[in-house]
Write a structure and sequence with these properties.
With 439 residues, the protein is of the alpha/beta class. The protein is 34% helix and 15% strand. Strands 4, 5, 6, 7, 8, 9, 10, 11, 12, 13 and 14 form an 11-stranded mixed sheet that branches. Strands 1-2-3 form a 3-stranded mixed sheet, with no helix packed on it. The longest helix has 28 residues. The chain is globular, with a radius of gyration of 27 Å. The protein starts with 12 loop residues before the first helix and ends in a 17-residue tail after the last helix.
């Protein structure tokens, strides 16, 4: 921990040193996602505060309590040392933790407890190598922001955590099952435009067909026509983003629409992307809502969450409106790309360790398993007899994944709980969305 401005007080030096020793022993942690930019900043657990630390300090050093006989350490002196001599902040509750990072931390604690300096040095070297690989992913995102939007399209793909309907605020709602509302986002890293594809769980599933259908719509309707390179950043979800169905579509784009297509994936546990900033903005807006009964409330909340550059809204399979009727926003029909592409693709492709893959027009992809390295290993997703024409035919002729005007069933428990919640609130007559729920 390095000080920024040394604290100047009239207290004896031994008193100041006692406060500093206490603060140094707190064992703060580095940032999980912004370590490269905040090399010196450390974080304490979110449930702590300056007041709590001050009270703990006085418990451990009762002789320094302020009283009429001695000056002691007053609260403002403690805060001044904390603020100016240490680059420490209070963090947020952590989620989606990297298992390797937590393992390194546990090993370091054990090494220091046993005074094993040699093993501690080895663990620190391994930890540093792991951080360098994770930072390579963020460096690639930062570099892509400076590219010209006319030449390159850079996208981030991800699902937001499930939203729910209805939200009534009733006391028994916590124990009730809800209808899930899905929000799949595609964020343009260069222009910062983002499209939110919204739908209810009875409209469609959350899989590779939905992700590929949304990406196809976005490329055809929102990507710059003059762009000749596509870069896609996504997490490691095998069922949605990192699978041979989406890779097959990216291969199609490599010979049909772009000269080069790249897909880049982070080290698991280090997957914070610009699209997650969009979700953070939305979630702050959601915290101000105490009741959400209609699909339109969700679409309005999300569309208006970012004031300077509002999010675009599109629907999947059906209009996500109170009465399921079109309101002018686009509706993306989900295509069954799984059935269309599976017969053309090789089986048992090992994709989980891929960190970057480049799709070329000759169907020979190259990939790397180390973030930041140039692609080096060849991979062929399609069978040898597959041609550009057969791939294009499969993509263009893919059947609809769901029957028109039909809905997916939901669990009987959700139906019962939803009806119970709605019976306690005044629902607008035009909200007929709940009539589409079937067991």
């Amino acid at each position: 921990m390095r000080g920024r401005n040394e604290c100047s007080t009239k207290h004896p030096e031994n008193v100041i040193l006692t406060v500093k020793e206490f603060l140094r022993a707190l064992n703060p942690r580095p940032s999980h996602y912004s370590r490269e930019r905040n090399t010196d900043r450390l974080y304490l657990p979110s449930n702590l505060s300056r007041t709590a630390l001050y009270n703990k300090f006085l418990e451990e050093n009762p002789q320094l309590r302020p009283n009429p006989e001695n000056r002691g350490v007053k609260y403002w002196i403690f805060c001044r040392i904390f603020n100016f001599d240490f680059n420490i902040r209070f963090g947020y509750p952590r989620s989606d933790l990297c298992s390797d990072c937590e393992l390194f931390n546990a090993k370091l604690i054990l090494c220091r407890r046993n005074n094993n300096e040699d093993e501690e040095t080895e663990v620190l070297l391994q930890q540093d190598a792991h951080w360098q690989m994770s930072n390579a992913f963020y460096a690639q995102i930062r570099e892509s922001k400076s590219l010209a939007p006319q030449n390159v399209t850079v996208l981030c793909l991800d699902y937001q955590k499930n939203l729910t309907l209805p939200i009534t605020g009733l006391n028994f709602e916590y124990f009730s099952s809800h209808i899930n509302v899905h929000n799949f986002a595609i964020h343009n890293v260069i222009t910062k435009d983002a499209t939110m594809f919204m739908y209810a769980e009875n409209f469609a599933k959350k899989g590779s067909n939905e992700v590929t259908s949304c990406l196809k719509w976005f490329i055809e309707n929102a990507a710059a026509l003059e762009s000749r390179k596509l870069i896609v950043f996504a997490d490691n979800s095998a069922g949605q983003n990192k699978n041979k169905i989406l890779f097959g579509f990216l291969q199609f784009l490599a010979h049909r629409r772009f000269h080069t297509v790249e897909a880049i994936f982070p080290i698991p546990g280090h997957s914070f992307m610009p699209v997650d900033q969009d979700f953070s903005i939305i979630e702050k807006k959601i915290k101000k809502e105490d009741r959400v009964l209609s699909p339109k409330q969700w679409t309005d909340i999300i569309a208006n969450a970012r004031g300077s550059q509002p999010f675009n809204i599109a629907y999947i399979q059906h209009p996500f409106t109170p009465d399921l009727q079109p309101d002018g926003k686009p509706v993306v029909l989900v295509k069954d790309f799984k059935s269309a592409l599976n017969p053309l693709q090789n089986d048992r492709l090992a994709l989980n360790t891929i960190r970057k893959i480049v799709f070329r027009r000759d169907f020979n992809c190259v990939f790397t398993t180390i973030p930041g390295n140039e692609c080096e290993t060849q991979l062929r997703i399609f069978k040898p007899d597959v041609t550009e024409e057969s791939l294009e035919t499969a993509i263009q002729n893919a059947a609809n994944a769901y029957e028109a005007n039909s809905f997916l069933p939901v669990s009987g428990r959700k139906l019962v709980d939803t009806q119970k919640l709605l019976s306690k609130v005044a629902l607008s007559p035009n909200v007929t969305f709940y009539d589409s729920l079937v067991a």
